[in-house]
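Notes continue from the previous slide.

Worked example: a multi-chain complex. Inputs as given:
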Amino acid sequence: MPFTIATWNINSIRLRLPIVERVLRERQPDVLCLQETKCIDELFPFEPLAAAGYPHVLINGQKGYHGVATISRRPIALLETRQFCGIADSRHLSARLSAGGLDILLHNFYVPAGGDEPDPEINPKFRHKLGFVDEMRAIPATSGDSAASILVGDLNIAPLEHDVWSHKQLLKVVSHTPVETESFEAMRLGGNWVDLMRQLVPADEKLYTWWSYRARDWAASDRGRRLDHIWSSANLSGRLTGIDVLREARGWERPSDHVPVIARFDLD
DNA sequence: ATGGTTGCCAAGCAA
């Protein structure tokens, strides 16, 4: 049995509990990292997730906005919930679990979207996003003989040309501006993180995890972006056996605008 | 160039 980990910006856990249960039932990931749960901790749906086989649930929620949760079939321990840029948003949760004899440090991130105007001087939300990515430099991929790291989440940046439907048309659109993509890649490489999706999908192939709600026909226009990511330390990247982007989930009833991404590893 | 949709929670704000 491989070890599998999934990430999904769910855009309200309570509204979309039925499709979360569907993914858990059909794909049975060992761990699912959720972002934008939009749910205070007291209202989090622990019981249905436990009934689905996921009794280990770690949450960092807030009212109405943001919020991350990491749910697991196997025991998992909360490490910390970090703040970034001195702003008390619920955008991070780290945890420790064991798989294949490895002690795995797992980060679940929801990076700020950054607003519409890609100018940090006039747009505080964009300034926050750039500062947030800068602060992520303090979280490198730690590893050792029996230790490894995984970082997943909605990172709200599509770094490569073919991570967006039109590189040229998105160069001035927040999520794909050079100031974002360059600092994003520098942060990833400086932290020794491996981009696992692109390890298996060639850089010249289009790859998206998000399609706007505003499209008349998201599938026909297919104007997507790869905003969701799975990274690992180098000692785990060699154990990666597969990546699934569940594009079909964008067409389900009451969908999130993001779809689940699942990584499979040759670990038990 | 503009507006297009969704969710929170009950008016805009954020995405």
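Summary box: The mean pLDDT of chain A is 97. The longest strand of chain A covers residues 102-110.
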